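Design job #97: recover the sequence.
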């Protein structure tokens, strides 16, 4: 990307701030942001939001290291939602749907499908924190092992817009233009 993608502006604010602001508006008891690359700048972009942060010094090892840091920091939380900061089109409404599905108490996992694609956010009950803390990459192995123990929510495929390339960012700016 040539620059830190989470700090790129979208709709007048850094992508990370936009995502975290929406999560904060969903009604969770607390929001922990695991930061890695240029963590000081990312934390500064979140200034004023009601969040705590934890630094993942081993971020280059992959997403599994962020799961481990999160699990270590969760304390006595009975569940945790794991979201990606580079999905800027999810709103508090979608995050709240994940939370409400968990509170309905039917399954230990709440997962999301965007058409045919399963992707974050995912919410896991405390009983699965040990497995999450052992991950090397994403949560797919835990989701697969417990596929019969999850509530799956259907979200619009249009919401699955993450930003990994300059082209993704340009597309996001175009998609966001009517909102600004």
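Job complete. Output follows.
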């Amino acid at each position: 990307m040539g620059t830190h993608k989470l700090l790129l502006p979208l709709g007048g604010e850094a992508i990370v701030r936009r995502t975290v602001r929406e999560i904060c508006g969903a009604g969770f008891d607390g929001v922990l942001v695991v930061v890695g690359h240029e963590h000081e700048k990312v934390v500064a972009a979140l200034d004023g939001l009601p969040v705590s942060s934890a630094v993942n010094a081993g971020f280059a090892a992959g997403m599994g290291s962020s799961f481990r840091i999160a699990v270590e920091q969760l304390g006595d939380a009975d569940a945790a939602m794991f979201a990606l900061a580079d999905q800027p089109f999810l709103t508090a409404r979608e995050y709240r749907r994940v939370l409400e599905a968990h509170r309905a108490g039917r399954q230990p996992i709440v997962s999301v499908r965007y058409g045919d694609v399963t992707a974050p956010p995912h919410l896991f009950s405390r009983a699965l924190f040990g497995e999450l803390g052992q991950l090397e990459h994403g949560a797919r192995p835990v989701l697969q092992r417990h596929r019969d123990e999850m509530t799956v929510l259907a979200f619009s495929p249009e919401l699955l817009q993450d930003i990994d390339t300059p082209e993704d960012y340009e597309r996001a700016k175009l998609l966001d233009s009517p909102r600004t």
